[in-house]
Amino acid sequence: MTINGASGDTPSARIYYPAMQAGSGATPDATGGPYPVICYGHGFKPFLFAAGIDYRNNRFIAEPLAAFGYVVICVDNAPNNSYFGSNATGQANSQRDADDLIAALDALEAENANVQSPLFGLLDTNQAVFAGHSRGGDAALIAAADERTNRGSSARVRAVVAFAAPSVDSQNNNAPLQFGDFTA
Fold it and tell me: Taking the model in full, what pTM does it have?
């Protein structure tokens, strides 16, 4: 699917879910729902060499999680936009990706409420996880903090998982990345 990203972009995403049989477009397994959701962002995507670094290369994570009873949406992070004179930083890129993870959760919430969707009524979007690897890990941390800051006690996120998330912005003189407030 394509989601309406909060940053004005329209990233592609792939949804993995518990199903009655294997394969694309399989019938969802309604017997174990509603299922908690995981919004997952992949790592750094260089501007020129982005082939193979996208939402489709996370099957090794998403399929086992779906088999364990999670609905996983893998979001395509935008290419790094700091090359060729752009003044965007790693912080700006990670924030855009965080906005897209939140937009992915919003899209799943809409699918859950849409009677025409095969996922209608099968998702527990109030039991959400933001997860990611590398820059996707930064995005997961930022998205979780933003969700908490913006929604307070009604935040949908219950956990955050960051694999190998950098702590400095290599595109901005190694300034510390800002992940948000986790005191709550």
Answer: 0.86
